Amino acid sequence: MNILLASGEVYPYSKTGGLADMVGALAVALANAGHEARVVTPLYRGIREKFPALRKVDWQFDLPMGLEHIQAELWELDVARGLKIYFVDQPGYFDRAGIYQENHFSYADNAERFIFFSKCVAHLARYLPWRPDVVHVHDWQVGLVPALILQQKTEGWGNPPPTCLTIHNLAYQGVFPEAAFALTNLPEHLFHTEGVEFFGLLNCLKAGIAYADVITTVSPRYAREITTEELGCGLDGLLRQRQKNLIGILNGVDYGEWNTNRNPHLPKPYTIGRMAGKNFNKRKLQKDLGLPVNESIPLFGTISRLAEQKGVDIQLGALSEMLNGNLQFVLLGSGSPEYERGYRDLARQFPGKVAVHFGYDETLAHRIEAGCDFFLMPSRFEPCGLNQMYSLRYGTIPIVRATGGLDDSVIDWTQNPRLATGIKFFEYTSRSLAKAIRKALVLYGQAKLFQICRRNAMKADFSWDQTVHNYLNVYEKCCKPAIVA
Ligand code: ADP
For the chain, what are the domain ranges? Predict the structure, then answer.
């Protein structure tokens, strides 16, 4: 099959979160499975320097944006057999210090930037000599693509390919003032409550939900949750209408990147059978982060965007109680200044027990996953979550709230004591999380049980084979229009 993927971020070219990891890995997995995958993404600052093999394509975009026309160029990178990345080069929009924001402020022209990018995707889908069998778009940044493609059907594009939208996080919808709708050059009649309008505003993700042939999201449980008022972020009604075409597929893990035995980020390799390297990594992490070096103290870690979704408030509450005991905690995070302040205060309150590092650091992320005993992920909601799956492979027991992909990927003691891989809690409260941490400390004290849990965790397999198989089924489903409502 020929699959055209489109995303506002793709690892290893750009990344702010799991979206980039997933799209990058899906493309590789599709190519490895013998398909032809091409990915379209913006050419952000620094990509050309980091990937000097990028080649300019003989291609010129000249697309209407409201009453104006905007031009752009196209670059490409052949990554492997069956995998090519296209980069849309529009320096005015994309040659900037950030991807979506700078200094915690979103760019004021994000609507314009990603409407233009979406138009480039639809344009490539139509005019590339290579014809996609399906166009698979990811999140709000390219949510308008299905509508733009359908519109071109009325403008002489005889048989456009079907479209699939993946929702990586329903909380980010790309909502902009009505005036931005004019930039889409879509007909006025699409600006209604069953289409792209959301309480008088333009909603890019809603556009995708309304017009894509098939919608997927990144875990089966999240697919159910987003049809409820509680987690539907105002779009649960529309999602219920489209439920027949809404499918949850758990993300895979790129074990080529996230592994413990061939990993340039880790001081020492280790495997299930040879865990000495993990202990070494723990001591090294303690030393490098300025904590007392002591293998017997249980070490908890978190790597996260510091956003409300991630459960920062209950985590700060639970830790300020639990850190009175014998444990250490490390954090790598970036995001809300208010939450950064909260963690800084925690570090001041518990010197020698807490190490916090703010910013984005890929190497430190691997080293925390490898050096800790437990990984905390108390999310309020979590579409899939990747870090808990990375933790499993790194033998770092995840402590998760039973929501979305966290619930789908971790097995708690009470679910199956023989196969347990982690610890789950249910209520979104500091008390409940503190209780889960207490359970972790008990587990840590029982060497045999801890070892069983660690082994189960490291054996859990979320490789892309199954995930890619599920996506191929979805692509086939959207290529059979009879099933599509
Ligand atoms: P989300 O996409 O909601 O941020 P996920 O768990 O799905 O959450 O994916 C987060 C990804 O981003 C993981 O690869 C994680 O390691 C990475 N990440 C998050 N924050 C940081 C950070 N401060 N430094 C390095 N990597 C980070």
Answer: 2-252+465-479, 276-461
